[in-house]
Structure prediction request, 269 residues.
Amino acid sequence: MIYNGVFCFTPRPLQETFHAEAATENAALVARNLFTPRSLGIRVVRLITDQYFDGHLRNNFTFVLNIKCMIRDYYQRFRKFYAGPIGFIIDVALFAIITYTFHVLWWDLANVIKSFAAVSNTADWLAGQVFHTSLWINRNLLGMHITIEDPHTMWFSNGGYVSVVESCSGLKQFYQIIVLFVLFPGPWKHKLWFIPMSIAIMHGVNILRIVILSVVVLWKPQYWDFIHEWILRPGFYVVIFLLWVWWVERFRSERTKRMSERSEAQLIR
Prediction:
């Protein structure tokens, strides 16, 4: 041992005695601290708390696993149900809900939406495109004698006219297509080309609508209101519905096939 910086040799029995006495003192100190009322209370509370939370967490973990298994089971059942013939009815209901909700929100928020300069400028630009394209078709392909008047009005030889205003731009239908196919289930890699293609189709349908109205106002002006309100305006939504049917029949069949293959693979496992 070292005493005052000088190494001193201590016999082994004496070292063991020193160690034994130190151990006895440490044990007595631990016993005094362990068996005081305060330490005993803390240990009992800690023991009860650990056991309670251990069991509580174990029960919660088991509960979460059961919920997860139940959700997975119901999801597998829904996939099999959706892959069947009733799945098309679910798609139709979803289409109706999205379309109705869009129209309700549009009617309530139309003034707010159109108050943005970007929206109003886009609508005016689209109306101009529809006007000039339909004017070119009427003059060069159908041989009509037309006098134009700003903003975007075509006057015909019989005194009738067709005006392409902001509501004729087709912007609302563009928004409807975007909302419908963004919210409706389907692969995004196909949505990226299907949505622009649908917008282009709707733009062409809108131009065709103005051309048809021009023919009607020139040859059968007495039917103009009926054709405009009850044939051509609903025709927009018929085209949107046909685009949706195309989407569902094209990509739902692929999705159904994949779901059936996954279900069969899980049954094999």
User: Anything to note?
Assistant: Helices lie at 12-34, 37-82, 87-114, 117-141, 171-183, 188-219, 224-268.
